[in-house]
Amino acid sequence: MEGGSNMEVKSVHLVQVADLPACAALDKYRKQAAFDWKQLRIFVEQPLDLKIKMNVWTKLASDPLFGKYSEASSTDEQKRVTCHQLVRFASTGIYDNLDTTFLLFSSQTKFIMCVNEATAMVNPCLSVKIALGISLFANVILGLGTERHLHFYRDVWDAKILSCLAITELAHGSDTKRMRTVAEYDPAHQQFVINTPDVGAAKCWVGNLGKQCTHALLFAQLIAQNTNHGLHLFVVPIRDPKTLLPYPGITVGDIGEKAGLHGIDNGFIMFHKYRIPRENLLNRTGDITPEGEYETSFSDPQRILGAALENLSCGRVAIMQESSNTLAKATVIAVRYAAQRTQFTDQQGIETPLIEYQLHQWRLFPYVAAAYALKFFIQQFTDKYLDCVVVSKTDTSGFRDVQMMVSGVHAIVCCTKPLFTWICRNALQECREACGGHGFLKSAGLSEMRANHDAKVTYEGDNNVLLQTTSQWLLRQAAAPPPPPADEHLFPASTVRFMAHADAKLNNATVNPSALADVCNPTFIVDCYEWLLCWLLRETRTKRDQCQRLLNDPIAAKSLTQVYAAHTLAIVFAEYNVVSCFWSRCQQSSDAAQRALLENLFYLFALWSLHKHVSVFYQGGLFRGGQVASLMESAILELCRRLKASAVAAVDALAPPDFVVNSVLGCADGKLYERLIESMTKPGSTDRPTWWKEMVLKANL
Ligand SMILES: Cc1cc2nc3c(=O)[nH]c(=O)nc-3n(C[C@H](O)[C@H](O)[C@H](O)COP(=O)(O)OP(=O)(O)OC[C@H]3O[C@@H](n4cnc5c(N)ncnc54)[C@H](O)[C@@H]3O)c2cc1C
Known about the structure:
Elements: H1 6-11, H2 24-30, H3 37-45, H4 47-61, H5 75-90, H6 105-122, H7 124-144, H8 150-157, E1 163-166, E2 182-186, E3 191-195, E4 203-206, E5 215-224, E6 227-237, E7 250-254, E8 267-271, E9 274-277, E10 286-288, E11 294-296, H9 301-311, H10 313-340, E12 342-345, E13 351-353, H11 358-394, H12 399-434, H13 446-454, H14 463-479, H15 502-508, H16 516-519, H17 522-551, H18 554-559, H19 562-587, H20 592-611, H21 614-620, H22 627-652, H23 658-661, H24 672-680, H25 692-700
Parallel strand pairs: 1-5, 2-5
Antiparallel strand pairs: 2-3, 3-9, 4-8, 5-6, 7-8, 10-11, 12-13
Helix pairs in contact: 4-6, 5-7, 6-7, 6-10, 6-11, 7-8, 10-11, 10-12, 10-22, 11-12, 11-19, 11-20, 11-22, 12-13, 12-14, 12-19, 14-19, 15-17, 17-19, 17-20, 19-20, 20-22
Domain Acyl-CoA oxidase C-terminal: 522-696
Domain Acyl-CoA oxidase C-alpha1: 313-475
Keywords: FAD, Fatty acid metabolism, Flavoprotein, Lipid metabolism, Oxidoreductase, Peroxisome
């Protein structure tokens, strides 16, 4: 195979990419691409991952249960169908042969994540149900439980139980520390008594809890011998698996209609002195003796909560994977539509496809580039994240280094999850609008994707709150001594290497581009990003120190340093990581035409991202005169113009099968208007309404 690493050369035979059906309007553009889209598909997705996903899609496509919801489905019906899909999914054999030991943790988790990605693209409700109900629960049991909890692990994979994760309370969401649900130890019965002290402490929003789950992973304040030891995780039985009736001592229900994700039963729960066995405390980080003594290897109780929450980071990694796929799917629909849809004529009277308009290219193509950027980043980062989890669980020696690695990986997750979910949110809206009125049809798929994606900016950590974790970490790194030269190329120290010569960068930096080639240049892009990070770090630190001196209140100082400083710093750090990864991935392509396309996409994504910070470059003095901004704008437009010939093939290389694209506007075979009219003339569409008499009566008044 041309264009790929050795690993790809070997494994390319594992997966077959099917030919696309003919479509005159799309083929006109497909033929203009200089690269082989099938090779690019394998390069982008990686052969083994693609094979796993194709297996899932083939299985689901052959089962009508995984087809579209009927348009008239009530939310209750959507929940019922998702439950059925869960049961059917378990019987597909996709999860057979999973290993239940920690030895294969990385490969097994990667496999589960890959299946999750494929499932989420078919029905995000189903993937949430599986993730919360099975895989996250299993992961947490392995990460925070001990030998005595392994039966839960086996039961959940055997589909005997289904779980949920109950953190959020009515009165507290982001401020996890202040959760008020209590688990008080009773040594006489060797049980924890779980109680909801007031309505504000009712757990809410919990996915799977509303109607179906049998067990909850519950965060509650652990109290023993009248001492509060902070938040801990407990496995709490909720419903009898045979009857689905809740156990006495619990009030549990569904929170009601939501704006999206209708197939998920988000629930609330209140506990009334409800008892669970002592052994149901997940006790890897802290335990209670039968007599009620509290034991922990952590000196700082905050670190116990930190360790528990870090264990949930894999949910954020999954959100990033899902967002990159949703983004890709949205661009597939919008670009295929733009190539077929014509509006207005040129001077010769020939109708112009939307894709020919500069404005349309400028609206859509940066999101195509972003789809590649995010996909490459999350693939690379998932491996690093899993390595980090393995090292942190197995290492007993270099404690300080492991801590640095864990906190660094956590800081990167906390800024990239917001970047991914926001780019995807914006892309969904732009793609919907780019498809005009037809984009608003449910059968176009985009509105539903937008509604289902929306909450990702909030759950698993509100974006604006998560970014504060990253900026705090960056400030700490800037204040710490630089890593030894031998370590500075290691991840995640390598991501903050730019800090080493921050003052020199700020004092001596100049950029003086005079041609497009000067800005379409990796050195220009890296220089700009590193300068921007150093400048924002200095601004944030200066603002924070000033506030601290004035107010003598570190919390207020942190709060007053967010806007135009820490918040932007964290976003820019996320972009810097994504951009750096994109460039290195481009260099792995050995096929000239493929690499030319990838570099075009790289420059477009990098300049489009940098351009959002143009005012900061002028404010801080890196850019002078109008020339640099004008060159960046010209480059963005030129990159869009060049991309036009490749855009359809570039989205073909991102596209799952039509069954998964699931849009009348975005199928590989085009047939745009045939599908549109079919979708508009469904049975019943020409019928007189059942309520016709009410209209006639009013007309006759
Ligand atoms: C669809 C969906 C599914 C969910 N599933 C689950 C689940 O399975 N289990 C579960 O436990 N929870 C779940 N949640 C809840 C979710 O985790 C919380 O909504 C989230 O943590 C945010 O908390 P909150 O809603 O209380 O918002 P708040 O914390 O009240 O935040 C409200 C706003 O204030 C801002 N804000 C907060 N603090 C600060 C600050 N210090 N500085 C500046 N701004 C700030 C935030 O950015 C946000 O915009 C789900 C939520 C949704 C929407």
